[in-house]
Amino acid sequence: MTESLHLLIVDDDREIRDLLTRYLARHGYRVTAAKDGQEMRRYLADRNIDLVVLDLMLPGEDGLSLCRAIRADGGPPVVMLSAMGEDADRILGLEIGADDYLPKPFNPRELVARIKAVLRRVQTPGATPVNGAGALAFCGYVLDQAQRRLTDPQGAEVTLTAGEYELLVALATRPRRVLSRDDLLEITRGRSAGPFDRSIDVQISRLRRKIEPDPADPAIIKTVRSGGYIFSPEVTQQ
């Protein structure tokens, strides 16, 4: 299953690069390692990369800037690593488009699990749509699950990260139903929320900025006090 998947490790610590390269290769992945942003950009331009494992603290251009550039270019999903384990750093990484975040030091087995979870969410066009559904329409938007794309009322594509897409599918396929943070994490990642896990809140905020007419007064994804979130519009299948 993983033999054709190509990972790019970006870390300035040679020991970590070598360790992750060997460990991930043993799990069947093809692995390329880069020591900085310059090498990362070259490999992304020259090779077909399925996922980037990106260190936050890099010499020169840091991981946040590089992650933002990957997102702007429509690049592969990103799992961010950082020795800075504070919530603020994790939230900032997720805000600028990382698909998951893992603080150092970490167990390599957990990194593999996170990589697999992110890659499961990134299906190729033509894969079986979620819940057997095709395209879902709401508020003029069309969410095409077969092509994994969202178009706005004017027909323009809305750029979503893998995490944002999975979260939108989870909400749109369960309209007018209150979903807690734990529910959404279980649906999208197959795991329960930790006591301080705010990643769903971050992704909800990002989604609102992309699809709400007024993100400060959301009408599509509403907050339910002490409950979670509810996808309020009518959803029709096309």
Automatic annotation (TrEMBL):
Keywords: Cytoplasm, DNA-binding, Phosphoprotein, Transcription, Transcription regulation, Two-component regulatory system. The modification 4-aspartylphosphate is found at residue 55. Signal peptide: none annotated. It comes from Rhodospirillum centenum (strain ATCC 51521 / SW). Residues 133-233 form the OmpR/PhoB-type domain. This is Regulatory protein VirG. InterPro entries: CheY-like_superfamily, OmpR/PhoB-type_DNA-bd, Sig_transdc_resp-reg_C-effctor, Sig_transdc_resp-reg_receiver, WalR-like, WH-like_DNA-bd_sf. Transmembrane segments: none annotated. It is found in: Cytoplasm. The keyword Cytoplasm applies. GO terms for cellular component: cytosol; protein-DNA complex. It comes from the Bacteria. GO terms for biological process: regulation of DNA-templated transcription. The lineage of its organism: Bacteria, Pseudomonadati, Pseudomonadota, Alphaproteobacteria, Rhodospirillales. Residues 6-119 form the Response regulatory domain. One of its GO terms (molecular function) is transcription cis-regulatory region binding. Residues 133-233 bind DNA.
